[in-house]
Amino acid sequence: KKKLLQQRRLFLCYKLPISIFAVNQTQLQSPMSSQLVDQYIQQFPPQTQVKLQELRSLILAIAPEAQEVISYKMPAYKLKSIMVYYAGYANHIGFYPTGQGMEAFKHKMGNYKHSKGAVQFPINQPLPVDLITEMVEFRKSHCQ
């Protein structure tokens, strides 16, 4: 109960409505989700913002029916379950198509740093649109 009160105070400090406080502590879903993603992107330097917006637009073009949410403090796209997440960092964009998505495309990672559940796209290089498109389409087909 004490933790709940602390979290509600946090939302009030940032003037966010308590209605966005979700039962699932890791995920915020509301009509404000797109605005929260906007705020997330705006905290980064301009070059990173461009990459994040490009990735966001690409995901929404592939899956316009996906719900844009904040999950684990990063933008995510949900159908029946989370399809993909992404996050901005100083030198790269982290793209998280889950372990299933990474396993299916590990042979296409080339020189990108990657792990079981994530791949890093350097800020100073173009996003690999074809690879991202394939990964999002794959995850979309597994989340419906």
SSE arrangement:
Layout lengths: L1 H12 L13 E2 L4 H10 L3 H17 L4 E5 L2 E5 L3 E7 L3 E5 L1 H8 L13 E4 L6 H14 L2
Percent helix among the residues? 40-55%
Would you tell me the structural class of the helices and strands?
Answer: alpha+beta
Poorly predicted tracts of residues? 1-30
The strand order across the widest sheet is 1-2-3-4-5-6
Give the rounded overall mean pLDDT. Answer: 83
Our Rg estimate from Cα atoms comes to 16 Å
Observed structural traits:
alpha+beta, 19% strand
Explain what this protein looks like in three dimensions:
With 144 residues, the protein is an alpha+beta fold. 42% of the residues lie in helices and 19% in strands. It is built from five helices and six strands, in the order αβααββββαβα. A six-stranded antiparallel sheet has the order 1-2-3-4-5-6. A hairpin with a 2-residue loop joins β2 and β3. α3 packs across α5. It is globular. The N terminus is likely disordered.
